[in-house]
Design a protein that fits this description.
The chain folds into two domains: 117 residues, Rossmann fold, CATH 3.40.50.720; 183 residues, NAD(P)-binding Rossmann-like Domain (Rossmann fold, 3-Layer(aba) Sandwich). Helix 1 links the parallel strand 1 and strand 2. It is built from twelve helices and twelve strands. With 326 residues, the chain is of the alpha/beta class. The model has no long low-confidence stretch (mean pLDDT 96).
Length: 326
């Protein structure tokens, strides 16, 4: 009689494409959350008991407390390029591998960032609300007059893959003057491909007509854009954040928008999301979206498949595809 080989047991912490679950089920015993319930930390910890792997999203916090309660856990595969839900130091100390999904969402997120910048500059949300409220009764020369994208100065804070994608769209598609600031300067070939010029953060803030934030969140980047930084921007400038909540001081931004110290903002991410700072909901000159920059069907499916493939590769080959702390 053949021995029965037990499949490793994993948790899929949020709802995911059914075909991805089917793929995972070939290799694992799965407990899934297709009801897409929002679990507390205690509930997540309870669900992780006895699991050797987890398929997570940015809402699932894995820290020292969770790890201490789940000593059998070996890997957490995030369906996201960001991983500020992971305490990487604690995971490394506990011998738990962390993975993410880089590259597969770069172009889709860059598309969205550029679209959000255009919607912000051209006051699309304000004008739609005006129309829907039945206030549009006549044409006027200055009705929702915004700012141009073509020929303007595009400033990018954070020049990784997505930042470079936005730079190329602006420089090659719209004839924008592209400047950027990054923790480290790009090589000359990459700068040339983006038609981008490296500047100090101070010059970036003072010069950009449209400032796009694409830097990773960390303790060092917390409130990288606060009241002092907003004060350095042009009163005609726009600010777009597609990076992570916490990089912008949302309260300070709401005050700057209310007082017209900058022209407008477009935000896809927020401090403490899904909660949104109430002051941002009271100012008209802001475009708000619910963290959907990577949300196209092909890209979200690619992200889910890469997270699944990280789990499969780890348990079948002993090595994940995109490790963060290998």
């Amino acid at each position: 009689m053949k021995d029965i080989v037990m499949k490793p047991s994993i948790l899929v912490a949020r709802a995911v494409f059914p075909e991805v679950l089917t793929k995972l089920a070939q290799h694992f015993e799965i407990e899934s959350n297709q009801a897409d319930e929002t679990w507390s930390k205690a509930q997540l910890t309870e669900k992780l008991h006895g699991k050797v792997g987890a398929f997570t999203t940015g809402t699932d916090r894995i820290d020292a407390e969770v790890l201490a309660a789940c000593p059998q856990l070996k890997i957490c595969a995030n369906m996201a390029v960001g991983y500020n839900n992971f305490d990487i130091a604690a995971m490394t100390a506990a011998g738990v591998l962390a993975t993410n999904t880089p590259d597969v969402l770069t172009e889709t997120t860059a598309d969205f960032g550029f679209a959000l910048m255009m919607a912000t500059a051209r006051r699309m949300t304000e004008s739609e609300h005006y129309l829907r409220a039945g206030k549009w009764t006549k044409w006027s020369y200055d009705m929702f007059a915004g700012s141009d994208i073509h020929g303007a100065t595009l400033g990018i804070l954070g020049m990784g893959r997505i930042g470079q994608g936005i730079a190329k769209r602006g420089a090659h598609g719209f004839g924008m003057n592209v400047i950027y600031h990054n923790r480290s300067r790009l090589d000359a070939t990459s700068e040339a491909a983006c038609k981008a010029r490296y500047v100090s953060k101070e010059e970036l803030l003072k010069t950009a007509d449209h400032l796009v934030l694409v830097l990773p969140y960390s303790a060092a980047s917390h409130h990288a854009i606060g009241a002092a930084e907003l004060a350095q921007m042009k009163p005609t400038a726009t600010l777009v954040n597609i990076a992570r909540g916490g990089i912008v001081d949302d309260a300070a931004l709401a005050a700057a928008l209310r007082d017209k110290r900058i022209a407008a903002a477009g935000l896809d991410v927020f401090e403490g999301e899904p909660a949104v700072h109430p002051d941002l909901l009271t100012v008209p000159n802001v475009v708000l979206t619910p963290h959907i920059a990577s949300s196209s069907v092909p890209t979200r499916l690619a992200m889910a498949n890469l997270a699944a493939d990280n789990l499969i590769a780890f348990f079948t080959q002993g090595k994940a595809l995109t490790p963060l702390n290998a």
